[in-house]
Prior knowledge:
Blueprint: H1 2-7, H2 10-26, H3 45-54, E1 60-69, H4 92-95, E2 97-104, E3 109-114, E4 120-124, E5 129-133, E6 138-142, H5 154-160, H6 166-176, E7 180-182, E8 186-190, E9 193-202, E10 209-217, E11 223-230, E12 236-246, E13 264-268, H7 292-298, E14 308-309, E15 312-322, E16 325-332, E17 339-345, H8 352-355, E18 365-368, E19 371-378, E20 381-388, E21 391-397, H9 401-409
Helix pairs in contact: 3-6
Amino acid sequence: MSYFLRRLPLPRLLLLCATIVAVGAGATALAVALGTGPVPPAKPLAEAVHDALSAPAVAGVSARIQFTDHLLEGSSLASQTGSGGGGAASSPLLTGATGRLWIAADGRVRLELQAEQGDTQILYDGHTVTLYDAASNSLYRYTPPQEAGASSTAGSDQEVHKIPTVAEIQEAIVHIMRHANLSGATPTDVAGQAAYAVRISPSHDGGLVGGAELAWDAVHGVPLRLAVYSTQNSSPVLELTATEVSYEAVPSSVFAFTPPADAKVTEIEPPRTHARARGGASNQTVTHEQGLAAVQAAVPFTLDAPATLAGMARSEVRGAQVNGHAAALITYGEGLGGIAVLESAAKAGGEPEEEAGGFLGELPKVALPGASASELPTPLGTLLSFQRAGVAYVLAGSVTPSALQDAAKGL
């Protein structure tokens, strides 16, 4: 999946990242609405989690929701949403929106976000994720490859779905707390339902990520709220909230969706990770080498991978792909506060902005030695892209713009 993400143009990558946040939260639930509902009794976190996992399955979930997204707030990109713009920045996945969510007992999901420029639909039928963005009349489909052994026997399925004991959950909590700060189960009222809430935050090397909060229904075991915070603000950067929730069977007709006949359809294919390109064929997948020497031998340009960058030690060098061609991913530092550098051969006569469909051209420019870079700052991290001496660089990290600029100057 990581290689697939690195091959996407930036507009699609941002849409996909927002989709993962929205569906990842919504596929198991919905969020908080102020109310005066009941509050459950206090209990240890391990016990509250065990009770949630043991709760009887619901017939279905339906809700009216509000998705809040401050990721691009304040950036020049946000101004593109006005005047009927139809680019990636006009998508409600990036601007926030109200909408509805349905989840069937068999795992089918439909998320509908409503906006003036047009609704965004996200559907999952158990096999394929479909995203339709009305603002750009674009449809994206992705079918994850089936994992080996997915067609397991009934006995192994029962083993996979075995509910862990309270002691096993407590052991997992102790392990998590070696690397992160984890609160207890806080009794609360979520959308008029008795619920428990928990907050997790990095204990070190967290970068700009302040933490995340999750709340779930104390009776039904269904997550009810997900929020992601930055260290720069006490308000959530991303949050999925619901104003109405019901646990009833969802009609199959809800999941029927037909896009416009003239929609631009993109079939996103999973990367092939094991074939080695031979004879210079550009349509074959390169082997994902590891180690500085091996990756250098696999790419057609000189790697720029200093031992340290912006005060961070180089941690890993891996082969990657960009548009089907050999590339390199170099990481520095540890944890969320690290920096990743993706290097690839620059397109002949092209600019990084062109390879991103013109999306980066609207971003502010910053001066670097021998190059002008496009910069996308967000409350959770920064993205920097530039081209120099035949090599295209993309730097990303949960760090401030100044920190990422310092890293770029070290290349």
